[in-house]
Design brief:
Layout (H helix, E strand, L loop, with lengths): L9 H16 L19 H15 L6 E5 L14 E4 L5 H11 L4 E7 H7 L1 H10 L4 E6 L34 H7 L5 E5 L3 H13 L4 E6 L12 H4 L3 E3 L9 H9 L3 E3 L1
Helix pairs in contact: 2-7, 4-5, 6-9
Bound molecules: thiamine diphosphate and iron/sulfur cluster (SF4).
Iron/sulfur cluster binds next to loops.
Length: about 270
């Protein structure tokens, strides 16, 4: 049974007041530009933006030495809402451009932001090569399982059977799993979090930025406008679990098994 939340509930109000106070004092607002996000109301990217600023604030990153390079797509707007150096590239090119920025300016912290469409189709070759070369960039893959800006077209991560504007009888292919793909290419840091749980996602992003090599963070993020079926907040709520305490982060086989398990591990 699902309990409907009453917006006049004083407990809920107190919770919101606490959240807003935390945002005001947590240092995240200093990293936000004056532009308000133009994403649809309820888009998971709001949670990702919050998690990212939280991670950057917790790491004490100097906004003048932080560069966020984005792909094209709804996810590509993310740097516009940050008060750091931002660069929007052509579709599928965020990772190589971020790698170039890092190569020319090794002292900068460089983050590439892409959607699952950009990272796993147009940019797939670049992603694989950046992993192989261990370019010291953090890649934030915003995985909503659709091409949001293309009005819900499929990506290589879209679940099989899904009806899309191009697949009236359902998508025939099995989805690519970005975590096992990256592990198979030799990635030494992969992580995953959920836009609906920004604290956990911020923790993963923080560790990924600190990593001195290529790191991939998959941020699972509902597209509330074009996916009413799969990655819905009410479906995903409560499914996320932390990695087992005994998990050895240096064990490739264990990482593969967790990535392929179908469980929603966060970490
Ligand atoms: C070179 C090139 N190919 C195709 C497009 C069309 N296009 C614009 S956004 C997009 C995909 C966006 O999907 P995704 O990367 O998953 O990001 P989202 O919008 O879901 O954040 C595509 C194919 C383009 N702009 N440029
Ligand atoms: S179309 Fe989807 S991904 Fe794009 S802003 Fe709207 S909810 Fe977000």
């Amino acid at each position: 049974m699902r309990v409907k939340q009453d917006e006049n509930d004083p407990l809920l109000e107190r919770e919101l007041v606490r959240e807003v106070a935390g945002i005001r004092t947590g240092g995240t607002l200093a990293l936000r530009s004056a532009d308000l996000p133009n994403w649809c109301a309820g888009c998971g990217y709001y949670g990702v933006l919050h998690a990212f600023t939280r991670a950057a604030a917790e790491l004490g990153l100097d906004p003048d030495r932080l560069v966020v390079v984005s792909d094209y797509g709804c996810s590509g707007w993310l740097p516009f809402f940050l008060k750091v150096y931002g660069f929007q590239t052509a579709h599928g090119r965020a990772v190589p451009v971020a790698g170039g920025v890092k190569m020319a300016n090794p002292d900068l912290t460089v983050v590439a932001v892409c959607g699952d469409g950009g990272a796993l189709s147009a940019g797939l070759g670049h992603l694989v090569q950046a992993i192989r070369r261990n370019v010291a960039v953090c890649c934030l893959l915003l995985d909503n399982g659709v091409r949001g800006l293309m009005r819900g077209q499929a990506t290589p991560a879209t679940p099989r059977g899904r009806v899309t504007p191009m697949h009236p009888y359902g998508l025939p292919e099995a989805p690519l799993n970005p975590l096992s793909l990256a592990l198979g290419c030799g990635a030494s840091f992969v992580g995953r979090g959920y836009a609906g749980a920004p604290e956990g996602l911020a923790r993963v992003i923080r560790e990924a930025i600190r990593f001195r090599g290529f790191s991939l963070v998959v941020a699972v993020s509902p597209c509330v406008t074009f996916d009413h079926e799969h990655w819905r907040y009410d479906e995903m709520h409560g499914k996320w679990v932390d990695l087992p305490p005994a998990h050895d982060p240096t064990d490739l086989r264990a990482a593969m098994e967790l990535a392929e398990s179908g469980a929603w591990y966060q970490g």
